[in-house]
């Protein structure tokens, strides 16, 4: 029996798939529902993109965060992508001598108004900035946490909100490292 394994062929004996010469750039060869080869854009599952961003939330916007009334969008969602947070650092500071004196929690979630109850959130900082002139909090996802509780994450914004009213007068810088993947 002859042994003509594809892996043993030389480069001169190999050929490109049917339709290669006329296929558009950035397309992949796929088998359609009828078993025919087609060249399609965005095939192969797409690719992931990792981004670093800094979002500054000024004191004038802090009191608007209450109960997701006007959450601050940290990363705007795209309909065909899902935002996966790799890490976040929150730095809050008062520009005046005044300090927060409340038990308000700062939270981050996906499209707060869409995902439902306030107890569904990605991370929360208990008593954020309470009796502090400067507050630093870091977040890295832990193994075993599932995003399934959020439902469909495609196109949803990553947002910042609070559980009650802050006294205000402080700014927050949020440093985010996130990856977007095709939905």
Structure, described:
It is a single chain. With about 180 residues, this protein is mainly beta. The chain has 2 domains: about 35 residues, no CATH class; about 130 residues, Sandwich (Jelly Rolls). About 5% of the residues lie in helices and about 40% in strands. The protein is built from 2 helices and 10 strands. The strands form 3 sheets. The protein has a 4-stranded antiparallel β-sheet with strand order 3-10-5-8. Strand 1 and strand 2 form a beta hairpin. The chain is elongated.
Protein traits:
single chain, about 180 residues, mainly beta, Jelly Rolls, four-stranded antiparallel sheet, 2 helices, about 5% helix
Task: Summarize the topology.
Blueprint: E1 27-31, E2 37-41, E3 49-57, H1 59-62, E4 72-75, E5 81-94, E6 106-110, H2 112-115, E7 123-125, E8 134-139, E9 158-162, E10 170-182
Antiparallel strand pairs: 1-2, 3-10, 4-9, 5-8, 5-10, 6-7, 6-9
How many alpha or pi helices? 2
Taken from the alpha-carbon principal axes, the silhouette is elongated
Distance between the termini: 47 Å
Overall SS class: mainly beta
Q: Radius of gyration from the CA trace?
A: 24 Å
| Total strands | 10
Low-pLDDT segments: 143-148
Which assembly state applies to the chains in this document? single chain
Summed over residues and divided by their number, the pLDDT gives a mean of 74
* Beta-strand residue fraction: 35-45%
Physical arrangement of strands within the biggest beta sheet: 3-10-5-8
Which CATH C-level class of the largest domain is it? Mainly Beta
> Biggest sheet, open or closed, and with what strands and sense?
4 strands, antiparallel
CATH architecture of the largest domain: Sandwich
The total tally of domains equals 2
How do the helices and strands follow one another from N- to C-terminus?
A: EEEHEEEHEEEE
CATH topology of the largest domain: Jelly Rolls
| Share of residues in helices | under 10%
């Amino acid at each position: 029996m002859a042994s003509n394994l594809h892996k043993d062929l030389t480069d001169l004996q190999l050929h490109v798939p049917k339709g290669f010469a006329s296929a558009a750039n950035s397309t992949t060869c796929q088998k359609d529902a009828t078993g025919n080869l087609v060249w399609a854009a965005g095939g192969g599952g797409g690719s992931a993109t990792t981004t670093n961003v800094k979002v500054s939330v000024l004191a004038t916007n802090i009191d608007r965060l209450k109960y997701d009334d006007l959450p601050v969008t940290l990363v705007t969602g795209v309909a065909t992508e899902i935002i996966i947070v790799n890490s976040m650092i929150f730095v809050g500071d008062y520009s005046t001598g005044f300090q927060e004196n409340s038990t308000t929690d700062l939270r981050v979630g996906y499209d707060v108004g869409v995902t439902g109850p306030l107890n569904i959130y990605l991370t929360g900082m208990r008593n954020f900035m309470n009796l502090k002139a400067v507050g630093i909090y870091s977040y890295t996802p832990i193994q075993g946490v599932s995003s399934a509780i959020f439902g469909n994450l495609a196109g949803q914004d990553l947002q910042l909100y609070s559980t009650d009213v802050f006294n205000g007068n402080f700014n927050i810088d949020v440093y985010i490292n996130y990856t977007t993947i095709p939905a």
